[in-house]
């Protein structure tokens, strides 16, 4: 009998936990994202979409800037998860690489700029706990996290852009070949 009661309570408890998570999203991250989206869109309208696009084009003209400075600005100013919306300023073929480089940077940035990804700060604090316990400064660790993060986002951006270009090229070839065979 106790087994069935525990099973029933566990079953309902699972849905209660889901409801609490949903309530947390509705009262936490969703309003934050709506306000951030509204503020960013208002800022873009205030500054002028043409100016913002020109600035974004200058920041993304070269791959080294496209996968270092641009994602850094996105993560720093818009934080995670809003930072991915900066991809709207890129051509479609570069969006996957921008996303890949940006998503790889949301953890390393927390050492120096915890506001950028406060929800994942536990990763950095978990790693830094050992350094703190030894009585060492966290500054060098935070700088190393940031520098390695920049190197990783550059590498991932370049590799993903190359893979995306290869896939686009192959997709175009596949679309052309059946028509050539039919004639």
Automatic annotation (TrEMBL):
The record lists the membrane-crossing segments as: 22-44, 64-87, 145-168
Q: What is the lineage of its organism?
A: Bacteria, Bacillati, Bacillota, Bacilli, Bacillales
Per the UniProt entry, what is one GO biological process? Answer: phosphoenolpyruvate-dependent sugar phosphotransferase system
What is the name listed in the Swiss-Prot or TrEMBL entry for this protein? PTS sorbitol transporter subunit IIC
Keyword field: Membrane, Transmembrane, Transmembrane helix
What organism, scientifically named, is this protein from? Salibacterium salarium
Q: Answer whether the UniProt record assigns the keyword Ribonucleoprotein to this protein.
A: no
Choose one Gene Ontology CC annotation of this protein and give it: membrane
Q: InterPro entries recorded for this chain?
A: PTS_IID_sorb
């Amino acid at each position: 009998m106790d087994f069935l009661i525990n099973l029933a309570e566990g079953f309902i408890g699972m849905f209660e936990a889901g409801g609490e998570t949903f309530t947390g999203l509705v009262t936490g991250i969703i309003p934050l994202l709506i306000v951030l989206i509204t503020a960013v869109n208002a800022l873009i309208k205030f500054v002028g979409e043409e100016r913002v696009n020109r600035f974004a084009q200058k920041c993304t003209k070269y791959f080294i800037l496209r996968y270092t400075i641009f994602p850094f600005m996105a993560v720093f100013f818009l934080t995670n998860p809003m930072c991915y919306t900066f991809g709207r300023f890129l051509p479609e073929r570069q969006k996957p690489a921008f996303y890949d480089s940006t998503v790889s940077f949301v953890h390393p940035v927390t050492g120096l700029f915890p506001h950028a990804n406060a929800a994942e700060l536990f990763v950095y604090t978990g790693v830094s706990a050992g350094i703190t316990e030894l009585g060492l400064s966290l500054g060098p660790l935070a700088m190393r996290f940031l520098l390695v993060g920049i190197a990783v986002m550059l590498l991932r951006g370049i590799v993903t852009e190359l893979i995306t270009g290869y896939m686009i090229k192959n997709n175009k070839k596949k679309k052309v070949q059946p028509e050539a065979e039919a004639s």
